[in-house]
Automatic annotation (TrEMBL):
PANTHER family: CHAPERONE-ACTIVITY OF BC1 COMPLEX CABC1 -RELATED, PROTEIN ACTIVITY OF BC1 COMPLEX KINASE 7, CHLOROPLASTIC. Its EC number is 2.7.-.-. This is Probable protein kinase UbiB. ATP binds at residues 127-135, 150. The chain crosses the membrane at residues 497-515, 521-537. One of its GO terms (cellular component) is plasma membrane. SUPFAM superfamilies: Protein kinase-like (PK-like) (SSF56112).
Amino acid sequence: MTLLGEFRRLCLIIRVFFNYGLGELVPNVAVLRIVCRLFFWLPNHHKDKPLGERLRLALQQLGPVWIKFGQMMSTRRDLFSAEIADQLTLLQDRVAPFEGSLARQCIESAMGAPLATWFDDFDQQALASASIAQVHRARLKSNGQEVVLKVIRPNIRPIIKADIRLMYRLAKWLPKLLPDSRRLRPYEVVKEYEKTLFDELNLLREAANAIQLRRNFKNSSMLYIPEVYSDLCRENVLVMERIYGIPVSDITALEQNGTNMKLLAERGVQVFFTQVFRDNFFHADMHPGNIFVSYQHPQDPLYIGIDCGIVGALNKADKRYLAENFVAFFNRDYQRVAELHLHSGWVPDDTNVEDFEFAIRTLCEPIFAKPLAEISFGHLLLNLFNTARRFNMEIQPQLVLLQKTLLYIEGLGRQLYPKLDLWATAKPFLENWLREQSGPCALLQTLKQKIPLWAEKFPELPELVYDSLQQHKKLRQSLDHLSLQLKKQQRQGKARYLLNVGMTLLVSGTLLQLIGQHEALSIGLIVVGVWVWIVAWKRV
C-alpha cells in the first residue's frame, strides 16, 4: 500500500472512531486530548446507543484486525465494565455474515467441483460468522456424517494488509511520541500479530493444528477437538465434524444442565497449563466463542475446542523460566523472581537485583494480603509491567500469545466460577512439572530419547575417535606453524627497527663529520650505527 493509501486508512479509522463517539475512551494525556480536539468537526452519529454497543459497532466496521482486538478485550471483565464486555462478546461469533451464495461459490471454486459432489443438505444460511471466516452446515455423502464447512471471507487479505501496514507505521511513531513505549517493543508485537493473522487465513494450517491438538488430548476427560476431514480441506476451506455443545459463555444453560461449574473452571486452567508445559503446543485463541461444553456427564464436564488457527509454543528455556517464575510468585520468593528475570534476559544485565526485588515485593505484598481466590493474575501482570518500566523491562514477543491466552483463561474461569483460585489450581501442576524436568524421571526420559541415537552411532565410535585424534594432530601442527610465523615476524620487526636506528646514527655521524664539528661524537655515532646494523643483519 502506498503512503497515500495508509493515510486514507488512518483517516477512515479516525472518522469511524469519532462517528461512534469514542473520544471519551482516550486516556487523559494532554497531547492526546489536544489531538482529539482537532477532530471536533466529526460528530457522534450514535448518541442514542450506549458506549459498549458503539465500541462494538466501530470495531466491527473497521474489520478483522480490530474485531480480533475486541474479542480479546471481551474476556477481561476485571478490566472493563459489564456493559462493554457484554457487547464485545457479540464479536466472537455474531459478526454480520456475507451472502451464503457467495460462500457456496468460494467453496466450489476452491474444491474445483459442485458441492453436491461431496455434500448433501448444504445450508446457505451461516451457522456462525466471525471476523475472518464463517461456517455452514452440511452432510457428507459418503457416510451421512454431519459436518461444518468453514470458508474464508472473500477479498479479506487486502484489508488485513492495509491495517497491518498502518499498525507498523504507528509502531514506529509511538516510541518517538511516547519514549516509555519503547519497552513495549511495539514493532515486534505488530510483527508477531501479523504472523498470527496471516496464519489464520490458511485453513490448511488450522486443519494441521486441530489434528495435532486432537492427538494430544486423545481419550482426555478435559478437552475434545472435533475430527478434521483433511482430504476435503483447502487453503480457504476447512471441513470438520459438527459438534453439539453449550457455549461456555452461556452460564444459565450450563447451570440448567447441572454442570459442575467449579470443576469446569479449574479444568480450563488445567487444560491451558497442560498444553503449554506438557505438549508445548497451545490453543492461543481460547475466547468464549471458540469453546463449548459437552451436554453429556455435566458433573464431569468436557470442553470442546474449535477454531485452532492460532497456536503458540515456547522454547525450552522460556518454558522453564516461566514455570519457575510462576512458582516463585506462588511462594512469594521475590528475590527468585528478580533473579529469573535477569537470567532470562527479560531485564538488562546491569539491573540491580536488590532494587528490582524490592520493587516487586512492594507491588505484590499488598495484593497477596487478600484471599488467593480474590487475586486477579491479569491485574498482577499489568501492575508488574508498570513497575518494571523504570528497570527497562521489555515485553518478549514470544510471550505475547501466552500472556493473551492466560488472560482469556482467567477471564473465562472467573465468569464460570467467580471464586476460582487460579493459584491453587496451577501451583501443584507447575511444581510437578518442574520436578519432572530435573528428577530421575527426566533423566530416564532423556536416556530413552538418546539411547537409539547412541546405539546408531556406537559402531562409528572408533572412526570418530581416530578422526578426532587426527584433527587434534593437525590443529597442533597448525598452531606450532603459526607460533613460528609469529616469532619470525617479531624478529623481523625488531630487525627493521634496529636498521632504522642504525641508519639514523650513521646519517647523524656523517653530517657531523661533514660540518667538521664534534669529531669524537660523530665517530662514536658512526661506530654505534655500524654495530647496530651488524646486529640487525644477524637477526634478519
